[in-house]
UniProtKB/TrEMBL annotation:
Residues 9-239 form the HpcH/HpaI aldolase/citrate lyase domain. The keyword Metal-binding applies. Keywords: Lyase, Magnesium, Metal-binding. One of its GO terms (molecular function) is lyase activity. This is CoA ester lyase. InterPro entries: Aldolase/citrate-lyase_domain, Citrate_lyase_beta/mcl1/mcl2, Pyrv/PenolPyrv_kinase-like_dom, Pyrv_kinase-like_dom_sf. Its cofactor is Mg(2+).
Length: 307
């Protein structure tokens, strides 16, 4: 039950091609930054972007942030060079590599072995660099359990809604928007499938981007849906979305206070009864071992958020 790993309530996308944006990202209050070599970078700009990303990681200033680089997916000619250049150049200053459009466990195994080789060659601790996988098409979702289990380096499973919607021919142009012709939430199954794999294999579950960057209220509304299910965080594409993500993926203060109260009361009454009571009353509410577990989830997230 990975409710707390590295902090990832807000995961900020930063194009590796823009030195200006790389510099600006250091000062923003995102939990994670991912320096992008994939879709935010044009093919001809990729070699320069690799150099920018290595320099930005080595220059430092990312204190307290989870530092990730998104490489290109394994159907392109760029992936191996992305991994080799970034990890050889800045492996000591990198927390995770993000692999997009993962379709099978073999994609993760390839990255795991490549990272191990580079870590050994550089004298870095083997296994120190984590992997984040993006699920962005039907094959990835069908194989998500095997993908999650493919390497102990996998830390997060990320929903990539834009590529996913395109790959299944969903008739919509707005990521996150409900469809007028479908009477439910078209993302529910995908989110739950990812969440089940994440919780089974002790990974974090991360929701993907919301592209209408000027509409922070709509961002909040979409984020609240995955936060309510149990997702740990969401991508942010613009500084204006960061505070909203940090807030939505932290428990509300009142819920956090209540969770700590449940934990205290349960410990107090059950130990007073010498361990013989399975359920106790807290005000009008009966609390038992399952309530304690639910309270632990909220309390752990609240403590990690500094509430
Ligand atoms: C993210 O990469 C997406 O495709 O939504
Ligand atoms: Mg994508």
């Amino acid at each position: 039950m990975a409710v707390v790993g590295r902090p990832r309530r807000s995961c900020l996308a930063v194009p590796g091609s823009s030195r200006k944006m790389l510099d600006k990202a250091r000062g923003l209050p995102a939990d994670q930054v991912f320096l992008d070599l994939e879709d935010a970078v044009a093919p001809l700009a990729k070699p320069d972007a690799r150099r920018n990303v290595v320099a930005a990681l080595n220059e430092g200033g990312w204190d307290g942030k989870t530092r990730v680089v998104r490489v290109n997916d394994l159907t392109t000619p760029w992936t191996y060079r992305d991994v080799v250049e970034v990890v050889e150049g800045a492996g000591a200053n990198l927390d995770c590599v993000m692999l997009p459009k993962v379709q099978a466990a073999g994609h993760v195994e390839w990255l795991d072995l490549t990272l191990t080789q580079i870590e050994k060659a550089l004298g870095l601790p083997v296994g120190g660099i984590g992997i984040e996988v993006q699920i962005e098409n039907a094959a990835g979702l069908v194989n998500v359990d095997a993908i999650a289990a493919a390497s102990p380096r996998v830390e997060t499973i990320i929903f990539g809604p834009a590529d996913f919607m395109a790959s299944i021919n969903m008739r919509s142009l707005v990521v996150g928007a409900l469809l007028p012709d479908y009477p439910g939430d078209p993302y529910h199954y995908i989110l739950m499938r990812i969440l089940m794999a994440a919780r089974t294999y002790d990974k974090q579950a991360i929701d993907g981007p919301f592209l209408q960057i000027r509409d922070v209220d709509a961002f909040r509304e979409v984020a609240r849906r995955s936060a309510a299910l149990g997702f740990d965080g969401k991508w942010v594409l613009h500084p204006g979305q960061i505070e909203a993500a940090n807030e939505v993926y932290s428990p509300a203060q009142a819920d956090y206070d209540r969770a700590e109260l449940i934990l205290d009361a349960y410990d107090h009454y059950t130990s007073e009864a010498g361990g013989r009571l399975g359920a106790v009353m807290l005000g009008d509410e009966m609390i038992d071992e399952a309530s304690r577990k639910m309270a632990l989830v909220i309390a752990a997230k609240g403590r990690a958020a500094g509430l």
